[in-house]
């Protein structure tokens, strides 16, 4: 059985890709694999604190053997319950933080990272805040307050494992824009790169995860549960202000530069340029 692990920033298309792959592989569509993600994170932390871990597991191989048995037991339990035939597709955005650990514990697994324009990710978080507005008592959260600085740093932190090394642990990179615009073409490329045998007959009407196993209502968009659509590609242009776009581009510059998301000129950026040239103040019109 082939194990497929999907990670990426939140709002980067991990749910969409899992849904399409589960349909194309005719295997169960499962909720976020938080237990496996936590196991991999614990293995990573144990390696980082090797001076303590060696008192429990003397060698690196001893530590690896323990966590491999732990992780394999969990995957075996999931397999016994979900009963997939040819493949098991698991996703958790946090898998992006533990790609090396996933490769060590499951060397034959397919590890996929979803990429998406950071500005569209930020726009998606802002839309979550809009849907949350007024639904909960107390102080509005960061998404409701449109805290773009916080959101941008969150996006940057998600992709930091890729900033200095484009494809750690032989991960396959898949762009949200490609999936949303041409799902069959994007999956065909993925199938070739990953050695997966996909059936494309079902992806036009994919089987989405049961509602009770999905995110809270504010995190679910109108696109989930429907046919694949490119409607959210470039959504930042209608959701974010010029200042907000400039903030995302500034903070997420390492990501955008590395993965080819070109910055656009914004009102704030234009104002800075005009000010530098001494043209910030327009001359009054003559009548």
Explain this structure to me?
- The protein has 287 residues and is an alpha/beta fold.
- It has one domain: Rossmann fold (3-Layer(aba) Sandwich), CATH 3.40.50.
- It contains 13 helices and four strands.
- It has a four-stranded parallel β-sheet, with helices on both faces.
- The chain is globular and about 55 Å long.
- It starts with a strand and ends in an 11-residue tail after the last helix.
Keywords:
alpha/beta, Rossmann fold, 49% helix, globular, disordered C terminus
Short structural description:
This protein has 13 helices and 4 strands. It has 287 residues and is α/β, with parallel strands linked by helices.
Strand content: 5-15%
Number of DSSP strand runs: 4
Q: What's the architecture, going by CATH?
A: 3-Layer(aba) Sandwich
Kindly report the average pLDDT value.
90
What's the shape? globular
Along the chain, the helix and strand elements come as: EHHHHEHEHHEHHHHHH
| CATH fold category name | Rossmann fold
Low-confidence stretches: 273-277, 279-287
- Portion of residues within helices: 40-55%
Distance between the termini: 79 Å
CATH superfamily: P-loop containing nucleotide triphosphate hydrolases
Number of discrete helical segments = 13
User: What Rg do the Cα atoms give?
Assistant: 22 Å
Structural classification: alpha/beta
Q: List the domain count as a whole number.
A: 1
The description of the largest β-sheet is: 4 strands, parallel
Going across the biggest sheet, name each strand in turn: 2-1-3-4
The first-level CATH class is given as Alpha Beta
């Amino acid at each position: 059985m082939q194990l497929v692990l999907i990670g990426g920033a939140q709002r980067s298309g991990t749910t969409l890709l899992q849904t399409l792959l589960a349909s194309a592989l005719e295997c169960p569509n499962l909720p976020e694999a938080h237990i496996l993600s936590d196991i991999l994170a614990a293995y990573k932390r144990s390696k980082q604190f090797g001076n303590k871990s060696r008192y429990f597991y003397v060698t690196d191989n001893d530590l690896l053997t323990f966590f491999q048995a732990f992780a394999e037991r969990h995957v075996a339990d999931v397999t016994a319950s979900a009963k997939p035939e040819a493949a098991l597709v698991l996703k958790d955005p946090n898998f992006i933080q533990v790609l090396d650990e996933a490769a060590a514990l499951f060397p034959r697994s397919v590890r996929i990272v979803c990429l998406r324009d950071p500005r569209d990710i930020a726009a998606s978080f802002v839309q979550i805040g809009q849907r949350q507005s007024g639904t909960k008592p107390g102080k509005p959260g960061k998404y409701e307050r449109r805290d773009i600085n916080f959101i941008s740093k969150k996006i940057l932190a998600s992709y930091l494992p890729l900033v200095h090394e484009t494809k750690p642990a032989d991960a396959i990179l898949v762009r949200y824009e490609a999936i949303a615009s041409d799902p069959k073409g994007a999956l065909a490329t993925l199938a070739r790169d990953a050695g997966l045998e996909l059936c494309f007959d079902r992806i036009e009407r994919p089987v989405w995860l049961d509602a009770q196993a999905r995110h809270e209502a504010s995190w679910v968009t109108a696109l989930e549960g429907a046919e694949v659509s490119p409607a959210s590609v470039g959504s930042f242009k209608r959701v974010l202000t010029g200042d907000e776009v400039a903030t995302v581009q500034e903070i997420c510059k390492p990501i955008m530069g590395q993965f080819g998301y070109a910055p656009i000129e914004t009102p704030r950026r234009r104002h800075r340029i005009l000010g530098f040239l001494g043209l910030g103040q327009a001359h009054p019109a003559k009548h």
